[in-house]
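To: structure subgroup
Subject: Chain for Friday's discussion

All,

I'm putting the inputs and outputs inline so they're searchable in the archive.
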Amino acid sequence: MAETTNVVIIGAGPAGLAVGACLRKVDIDFIILERADEIAPSWRHHYERLHLHTIKRLSSLPFMPFPKDYPRYVPRRQMVEYLDSYARAFDLQPRLGQTVRSVRKDGDEWLVESTSALVRAPCVVVASGYNAESVQPAFPGAERFKGRIMHARDYANGRPFAGQPVLVVGMGNTGAEIALDLAEQGARPTISVRNGVHIVPRELFGIPIQMLSILTAKLPLGGNSPLLLHIIDRALGELESYGIHRPRGPIIPKTGGRARIPVIDVGTVKKIQQRAIKVAPGIAGITTDGVTFADGSSARFDSIILATGYRANYSSFLEGYEGDGAIGDQAVNDLSRKSGVYFVGLRNSASGLLREIGREAVTVADNIAQRRRRAEDLWSGRKGQDG
């Protein structure tokens, strides 16, 4: 027999914890289901040198700022400590080791089936993360490679690769920072960049790029004015001769969802300019001891690290919702308000994922509280008529 609650939250990362705290504030009961055996598993297992690219003042979760002694850009270890403290502060006790297998409509409610639980609730919050599942493209010849091929998800630090030629496939924020870490740890990294990439400094004249993105978002061109682009290019230095080309699309996307945010540089550009990190085009194929690139060149590598991204993959358990990308479309949000299924933490934003998580969590909790009040008013009205 299914147990009942008002809300089932899927995922105990920052998004799930933020929603739980907001529901505590409006006195609505909930159950958090987490497939891992610990809260915030992604943060615990990210590569070691990771820091937030966004400032702490705009990256904390609702009702609890980061400690004053934390640095401006919070490192991974302190982020984990903060999330543990956050869970304790709001008495959030996720049920761990609970992989959600299906979420299906049952009358006016949702039936959520996990590893060892069956829960019925009028509302479900999908907070399973923007990086729930790694994307690993299939390259011709990969099976013949005698070295190691791994996804960035499994990368901890560059020490095991010291002295090795290593190929990092993909130059998003993860790929750029892993290449930097490899260079700092004595490896000889190359980044394979298939298409053009927008790069911005983490700070411009001492102002965090996150704040500039927020401040310019309401301007006609957002953060994409020719003047701003020129200033950014001057700050970074010339990159075309190193194999990095700026694409035609906007540098700061105006929408969430699948919009690709720019690479926020924390030192990778300087290493490229120093030739400590090489840049190569996209991969044509993999050989026994290296890679052939799209321009016909080839190089030998001992290891290949796939910084090829992640997907949310909520469609594997959520009936009626196709796709596995991020949620940012207004039509989907409207559907959520009608159906009782909400999405938090799946919206890619140049203003900062954690900032968006906080805003979304508050909005979702308020909407669920309104939904509950309407249901209670309806029930009271029916009782009054029956009486």
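Points worth raising on Friday:
The chain has nine helices and 22 strands.
The two ends are 31 Å apart (CA to CA).

D.
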